[in-house]
Design a protein that fits this description.
Structural class: alpha+beta
Distance between the termini: 37 Å
Number of helices: 5
Strand order of the largest sheet: 3-2-1-4-7
Radius of gyration: 18 Å
Strand content: 25-35%
Shape: globular
Order of helices and strands: EEEHEEEHEHEEEHH
Mean pLDDT: 93
Low-confidence stretches: none
């Protein structure tokens, strides 16, 4: 059995697949906001719950915002800022008692689509995530292009072309810059932009 987890800023989703790729179980829960220990506990609870239900143990891979630093092995560049600077891989392996594989969620998306999805057969694939954050992954000839810092496909922290004067000051981003793509096109960015323009507060889903 193979278990995959999408660790997002708003939700955490788990899926269990058999060797033929058939879905055995699927669950989704809210992500504990700003709570690293709570996030670890939620992931562990999902895994133990699915394994108990199915009566078998699985291998585990996790798609997460941000990337593992090649210097420290800790998470960096995650819009779920409670993950940044944390030894997520080590902590999960200790908690779950097994090897865990972690990769950037947008890289996972791009590789999946390049392998057998909408971009199957394409030589170069750029996969985009628009959710709690704005991410991207690049696949060239079936291989993920990571880049020297592990963030080659990330485009959410590039600035949009400078808006008109009426749009200033530019919105602040958690990365320390202003006017990043993510401050406009992510779910929270859309909600914040709507509030700035209208004075009304709406959830992104609305």
């Amino acid at each position: 059995m193979r278990i995959g987890i999408d660790l997002g800023g708003t939700k955490i989703e788990i899926i269990a697949l058999d060797t033929a790729g058939t879905t055995l179980a699927r669950r989704r829960v809210a992500t504990p906001q700003g709570d690293y220990a709570g996030t670890l506990a939620t992931v562990a609870g999902l895994v133990s719950g699915v394994e108990s239900e199915l009566g078998q143990r699985g291998t585990l891979g996790i798609g997460t915002p941000g990337a593992l630093s090649r210097v420290s092995g800790r998470i960096k560049n995650a819009n779920s800022t409670c993950l940044n600077g944390q030894p997520l891989l080590d902590d999960l392996q200790a908690l779950l008692g097994r090897e865990v594989r972690i990769a950037n969620d947008a890289n996972c998306l791009a590789l999946s689509e390049a392998s057998d999805g909408a971009a199957a057969g394409a030589e170069v694939v750029f996969g985009v995530i628009l959710g709690t954050g704005v991410g991207g992954g690049i696949v060239v000839r079936g291989q993920v292009l990571d880049g020297p810092n592990g963030i080659a496909g990330e485009w959410g922290h590039n600035p949009l072309p400078l808006p008109a004067g009426a749009d200033l000051p530019l919105p602040a981003c958690y990365c320390g810059r202003f006017g990043c793509v993510e401050t406009y096109l992510s779910g929270p960015g859309l909600a914040a932009d709507h509030a700035r323009m209208s004075g009304a507060t709406l959830a992104p889903e609305a």
